[in-house]
Amino acid sequence: MSTTPPSPKVAAWHTLEPETLLQNLQTSLQGLTTAEAAHRLRVHGPNALQEAKPVSPWAIFLGQFKNLIIWILIVAGMISGVLGEVVDAIAIGGQGGLFIVTGLCRIHVSNHTKITALSFGTP
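The structure corresponding to this sequence follows.
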């Protein structure tokens, strides 16, 4: 079996026939031999995800202000306040705050889940 890596020209691998895919990956239905697996491990490294730097909650919070809807709510709340519509301004501000908090929680939980999954390591 050849030890050259698969061709990077295969973009739509999910559309290939199984036989073609096995040929492109230079393997078989029985898998790699121990020698070939050791060689690929030396050449390509372990099959592991790169550990990303954790993002602080403050960075996530500030990142919420990149969302256009947040800015629309801020401007709408300010306009309502200037026009004397205090109840509307409070309601709009509360909606914006709720939007920010739910986005913060969603991203924080997603990052925590990713870190937990990475901690399992590779088999």
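The radius of gyration is 25 Å.
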